Amino acid sequence: MKQLPLTKQQLIAAMISLSLGSMAQAALTINGSSSSESSARMSWGGADSLSEARSIMSKSSNSSAIKKVDSGYGTTNITNTPTNASNFGSSNNNSYNNANSYNTTYRGSFGNSSMIPISTDSRSVAVIDAETGESIYQKDADVARPMASITKVMTAMVVLDAGLDMREEITLDPEDFVGPKRASSNLKSGDRLNRAEMLLMALMKSENPAAKSLARNYPGGYSAFMRAMNRKAQEIGMSTAFFGDPTGLDKRNVASSNDLVKMVRAAGNYDVIRRFSTTKSYDFYVSNYSNGNRTYKANNTSSLVRDGSYPIGISKTGFINEAGRCVVMETRVNNRPAIIVILGANSSATRWGDAKNILNSLATRRTV
């Protein structure tokens, strides 16, 4: 399933007019139905990711960004209760019990040859058949480890749950460049993009200031955002997870591979995460009063997404020294959906070598 690069026409189709009253030149605005629930066939990436995303994400604060996605196999039904502004970032430990209810039903079954006969070099690996929910490969998958920028998948879900106006302009502040670690960035203080573009920056290019700014501009502020991230982890059953920052630069951001499988499955119910995380490249028009306007040409951090040789439905990479090279993805191989989590690879070559080894093994796996 070879992906094609975005054409000029497709990029134009993804552009929406600027918000009235705003001087920002941010181009990407995503609009959607006012319905609180919709259905869509599962996306596996492609050149139309951005243009399709704009028709999916809700811009109204009264609408839910959670969608029910029909993969044609197992389905995950999510019931979402709209959150009032007064409840954002609540520290009530029981609040998550009354919010989103995740109910997964699987169809299909394995034969005795369901496990894939491979060895991997990364420290922790989990692979599940997303049709049945059964594990088909594990390696130290219950040990909590630093996840680095895999964190941004949770960041995106919390942003989308809030139902905020994705056209709203956000200006990067100096504090958005301050974190637990120093990290390179092509963004600058004073850069102005809308919320949708910041989300695309965070998921596709893994820009840390973009993720930090999304948290800072959350109702209740940064602290409320961090409480919401950890509450969301509880909602989806991530018993080993903790989030200390929205970027993944904090080594305290940890979860087991099996818990990250749960996070990827939950993220699959957000079509915008599917579209944005598998966008191969995008040219951002960045406004900055002090430093001037410029074009930021960004490419996806995943070589598998950029190459387009594998059908990838969700993707996120990560790296800090404590975490090693990491990646999570959802894919469909041999007409079967699977979720893959790789943590703690000692090099990029090891990470992608393990990933390709798993993908190729899935292609030859016998199922009944």
Can you walk through the features of this model?
The protein starts with 7 loop residues before the first helix and ends with a helix. The N terminus is likely disordered. Strand 11 and strand 12 form a beta hairpin. The protein has 10 helices and 15 strands. Helix 3 packs across helix 6 and helix 4 runs antiparallel to helix 5. The chain has 368 residues and is of the alpha+beta class.
Rounded mean pLDDT score = 77
Radius of gyration: 19 Å
DSSP E strands, number: 15
Helix and strand composition category = alpha+beta
Distance between the termini: 24 Å
Q: Tell me the strand order in the biggest sheet.
A: 6-5-15-14-13
- Give a short account of the largest sheet: 5 strands, antiparallel
Q: Number of helical runs?
A: 10
Q: How would you spell out the order of helices and strands?
A: HEHEEEEEEHEEHHHEHHEEHEEEH
Provide the helix percentage: 25-40%
Shape: globular
- Which blocks of ≥5 consecutive residues have pLDDT under 50? 1-27, 31-47, 57-113
Strand content: 15-25%
